[in-house]
Amino acid sequence: MSARARLARFLRRQIRDLREGGVPVAWRKALMSCEMLLAIPFVLVVRLLRPLLAVRFAGLPTEGMGTLAATLEIYLCEREAGLHGRRAIDLFCRSQLVCNEQLTKMWERVVPMSRFIRAAERVNRWLPGGRGNRVPWERTQCYDLHGLLAHTRPHIAFTAQEEAHGRAELRRIGVGDGADIVCFYARDAAYYLSRPSVRSPTAERQHDHRNSEIRAQVPAMHAMAQRGYVAVRMGAGVSQRLGVVHPRILDYAIDSRTDFLDVYLCARCHFFLGDSGGLASVPMVFRRPVAMVNSIPLEYAWSWAPQDLFLPKLLWLRSEQRLLTFPEIMGSRIGRLMDAQLYEQAGIDAIDNTPEDIAALAVEMDERLKGTWQTHEEDEERQRRFWKLFAHSKHHRHIRSRIGAAFLRQHQALLEAPARRVQVTA
After folding, report:
1. Are 278 and 65 in contact (CB under 8 A)?
2. 26 in the Ramachandran plot: left (φ > 0), alpha (ψ -120 to 50) or beta?
3. Distance of CA 293 to the CA centre of its chain
């Protein structure tokens, strides 16, 4: 897009905002304009200092739970490892939209963050030559490419006051002192449909293939409840009740949800079982084990944490009325398709994991964490064959996680080499 086109789009957006928002929006934009005028000399001085000290700016992606949790945590781990330069000061600002105030507050205790930095970040982005003063990250990077999370401690923590509040909040929702928690979560389109300012309904439909059904996790909840855990259904903005009456199964997403408890439960759970929605990144930040179900696309499966397990969605090829094999998926672009429309164009249906698959994964996770899981050489050989398919991928430099053993036994035929490559035009 040309500079003239960008300017025209910017002016149209400002006029639309003023018409819709009236005086409050006009006042806010006037204040921002003053801040940006003050930020111009600051940014120019910072650029002059760049040969001696790099001062870098970034907007913290506070509008999405996955990026808010994972992006900064992974970046800080990489910076400590010397991957982003050591003579640098990184300054951050909030986005205008904040998906979780508690998590944002915890980050504000760790990194320099202020409203003025938002103006400086914009000025630096708009003035030519500012690349050296940008934080060198991708705002959507949620993958631990260097395998650092397993060897580092979380960068955020609860204060003593927050810990006391957390224990009191657990008692309020029915979790007794000392009870072990397993969190359950399914990505629900209702979250974004209720927040059109974050993602429009049209944009959300591009992610429909990532959604899954929470009630498919109910057998796993019962299995964990029988083992003495409290099963907690998570989610902010969900479309239906869980529909379960059990003293150890809590429909927290409907009955008791708060920003604070969303973070506290993820940080204190025995393990987290959920799909590829953004909330799964929060237990990852606190180094809690994650059992990922309905993972899609296959090539972007989490693979770096030694305690993590996962199950992929199966892919059904309509034209041939069969499941695609894992080598077919990983040997083509299918393994990287991120848009629901591309699956439709390719004639592929994403098939959710069954309740039996999910319950078996929960049991495997529990037994592995307890050290009672019994493995067999045939299972280990299937694991080796499966993960060998990822060797060429740039997203999997450190493979430590495992695909569910029972799932791989059931679908071992999908490990067989395909008769031919699948051509995808999407």
Report:
1. yes
2. alpha
3. 13
Report phi then psi at 346, rounded to 5: -85, -5
Is the pLDDT at 189 greater than 90, yes or no? no
403 to 151, 293, 380, 400: CA distances (angstroms)? 22, 10, 11, 10
For residue 195, the model assigns a pLDDT of 63
Closest CA to 75 of 138, 125, 118, 133: 138
Q: Cβ distance 275 to 361 under 8 Å?
A: no
Express as a percent the part of the chain with pLDDT over 70: 89
In the numeric block, which tokens belong to residue 224?
């964990």
Buried b (16+ CB within 10 A) or exposed e, 260-275: bbbbbbbbbbbbbbbb
List the domain boundaries for the chain. 3-151, 167-415
With a cut of 90, say whether residue 384 has pLDDT above it. Answer: yes
d(CA 36, CA 47): 16
Element (H, E) at 77: helix 65-80
> Taking residues 333-350, what's their average pLDDT?
93
